[in-house]
Amino acid sequence: MNTVTTSRQVLYSIENVKKHYPIKGGIFKTVKSHVKAVDGITLDIFKGETLGVVGESGCGKSTLGRTILGLETATDGVMKFKGDDLSGKTPKQLKPYKREMQMIFQDPYASLNPKQRIGDALEEALIIHTDLEPAGRRSKVNQLLKEVGLKEEHYDRYPHEFSGGQRQRIGIARAISINPSFIVCDEPVSALDVSVQAQVIKLLKDLQEKHELTYMFVSHDLGVVRHLCDRVLVMYLGQMVELAPVAKLYENPTHPYTEALLSAIPRPVVGRKTERIRLQGDLPSPTDPPPGCAFHTRCPLATERCKMERPKWREIEDGHFIACHNK
Amino acid sequence: MSAETASHAVTVLPKQKKDYAIISTAKRLVKNKVAIIGLFIIFIQILLAVFAPLFATHDPVKQNLSMAELGPLTEGHWLGTDNYGRDMWSRLVYGARISLFVGIGAVVLGLAGGITLGLLSGYYRRLDGIIMRIVDLLFAFPGILLAMLIIAILGTSLANVIIAISIWSIPTCARIVRGSVLSIKKQEYILAMKSLGASDMRIMIKHILPNCMAPIIVFATMRMATAILSTASLSFLGLGAQPPTPEWGAMISAGQDFMWTSPHMIIIPGIAIMCVVFAFNVVGDALRDALDPGMNLEN
Predict the structure, then answer these.
(1) Which end of chain B is more exposed for a tag (fewer CB within 10 A), N or C?
(2) Where is the ABC transporter domain (chain A) (predicted)?
(3) ipTM of the complex
């Protein structure tokens, strides 16, 4: 797949990745069923791009990010980072790869140890991954603090002395401290207020340029995604629905789910009312996703075929992929 | 972007205003009047224990049968003497040393065991079942019976009392730590450390343990009271300190036969035990309030 874009270098390639959580029950704690949080994602992430992942709450976008980073063990699938297969590697063998991949978390209040000084928190990654001397680590930490817009004096501070935006900057500094090439941003700005959001997004962009970072940007904020991302993946119930360059997706959403999702963005244009597509019914349980196309229970275009057959992932135009029978 | 520059000029508090958790906790602690009494008693005990040779007026084990069973406020023996003519005050002072030593020893050992088991069982779900069943087993014995059983196996001595009481503290401590670990383990900063590639050991020691210190500190303080009381009980039963060691429980035990003729022989060590146990309990209670995260919210 992605034949057109072979000119770009693939950083991370995942194939049919699944993450199922067992539900245990009964006296003997036998596995009753599975929550299919991520159910067969095939994706190439290119070097230097920002890939947005959007979808409703519970569609598995965060789980996908964590699975890609190896924070959750994938149930199935092949993950190749820079061409090296990561499956079956021991934790020790994975350590150099962990250094390349980092994560920025959603909640800046929960993602920093309240009992640890900021300097120590930033230094910790350097202790784990480098053999710098204490003085070298200190100057690196100072440099990191400045890079994310904080000050050297903040070294001795504890997390509760900072605002949400500042804490998120610390989280970002921690993520870039060991020069990773790939960062999963798990809704990094959704806990911040709008003015701070803009600053943090700008910081992320600056850092991307400076360090040639590749981002996977998990978000439910479609406005932010449009602003920041190069390509967008739409997920529904752990499955891929549509993947397209950001302009194409927003101009020409093809999958009915994407259309519905995008129509929910409020548009500040006077006199031009776009019709909001309202989906009927609730999100089905990921424990027991509908057969065939997972979206058929709520899809306005659903046919008999959608109930029986899972739609193929196909390319409808350059770099624009979709999983739908009817488009 | 003006907001950007604003964030650079962030509220840099002056250094002396820095709010250390330990200082704010201490401030809240001394607001509690009863806790101050408790702290005072503990302070006195520590003082007596550390400088026992300075405070003692006589050799605590030296017998002087011509001066036996003197009542309190006798000249030269202001708390009187026991049936062998040993100075009660000196015995009391050295007894403070023993009970403090046994208390600290038992609590430290118990904490070491309990924290280790609690961390392991909270962090590794696979070990949880096994460790918690062992803990349940220890819980099944009444505490003092368990201690007596251990002493029966190991033999009577103060060192074995420490071991017995520490083993008795392990299950409670393990449960407390496990509970905290389970809740802290789910915090995002633990996941952040995992994504940085931190080892389990590093996560447990540097990130989980410091965040579950509050209940451990409270437990340790309260446990001091229990340990001191149990040492006295075991010594009273003849399973702990052996004569002529000036242990408070042993002193009461020895004074039993003279309780009608020389009641001070049991009343004085009894009051000492009561005060110290009361002090540790009260301070433990106050610490629990002072460390309560609900009251920790800064305004």
Answers:
(1) C
(2) 12-262
(3) 0.82
